[in-house]
């Protein structure tokens, strides 16, 4: 059987051990020349990698999603444009240091992970079976839980391959938004504890600590002060619950100079609750079906400016942004190269 079908669903059924081998699609190598023109401080990647629809784009054949989840990182990490990935499943369930180490072992030395903090720390409300917040979460922004279930295991497991510690606050109840001073005080304490834990590791390259929010009311100078004092940055969250990218950039400017972390999660045309609709329209996630050239262009100019000043940049993109994350990344990379040529100096 040809190399292109090695490890396919057919092979896995005949020989389960064949499913352990996932290879990079040969067509992915066409992006090597483009990757070499990107600024060295830029890391692009996807948000979750286990999509069979990327056959021919990232994977050399049709693999089961479970196989890709367990074994796809080795191939993904060889893609010329993919120098990071967002590990999203940690939001729903903490992982162990051993699980993080298994991920890190699959990628090159220069690869860096963006990892989300479990929602047992970042959800203000405990979720019911329907996934909706119901009662107050006593562990919200707990420094003890953050260290025990996130910071320490991921540092132990990934070490220098950890690029970003991401704290994504879920939409907050109105009462808590009205008490923003209390919220910011809790957040400040958490960031200081995380900063100390990271510094104690004395890694050659310290991971970035970033905060993503889902409530526009929090984009204030007060939040910028808390982030700066805690040695953290703001993560651009591009989706329907937040304003367009232009309206979020002032908070980044208030933190300048500093790195950029951006997660392009959902095309705004689907609205604040449009993830299911986006999934249904975009499956199997192998084509650009919801192009957003405006967001892509603004993001590219922002990346060119920040990397041009010598600051690191992490950008991850979901299939829900335009329909196919690998194709979105290629288009964004091309836009970044074009924007670089227009930078002064």
Attribute tags:
two-stranded antiparallel ribbon, eight-stranded parallel beta barrel, alpha/beta, 345 residues
What does this molecule look like?
There is one protein chain. By secondary structure, the chain is α/β, with parallel strands linked by helices. The chain contains 15 helices and ten strands. It has an eight-stranded parallel beta barrel with strand order 1-2-3-6-7-8-9-10, surrounded by six helices. The chain has a two-stranded antiparallel sheet with strand order 4-5. The longest helix is centred in the middle third of the chain and has 22 residues. The protein is globular and about 50 Å long. The N terminus is likely disordered.
Cross-sheet strand order for the largest sheet: 1-2-3-6-7-8-9-10
C-alpha-based Rg, rounded:
20 Å
* Sequence stretches where pLDDT stays below 50 over 5 or more residues: 1-19
Helical run tally: 15
Number of strands: 10
**What is the molecular shape?**
globular
Give the percentage of residues in beta strands: 15-25%
Query: Termini, distance in Å?
Result: 54 Å
| SSE pattern | HHEHHEHEHEEHEHHEHEHEHHEHH
Quaternary structure annotation: single chain
Q: What structural class do the secondary elements suggest?
A: alpha/beta
- Estimate the helix proportion, in percent: 40-55%
How is the main sheet built? 8 strands, parallel, barrel
Mean pLDDT, nearest integer? Answer: 92
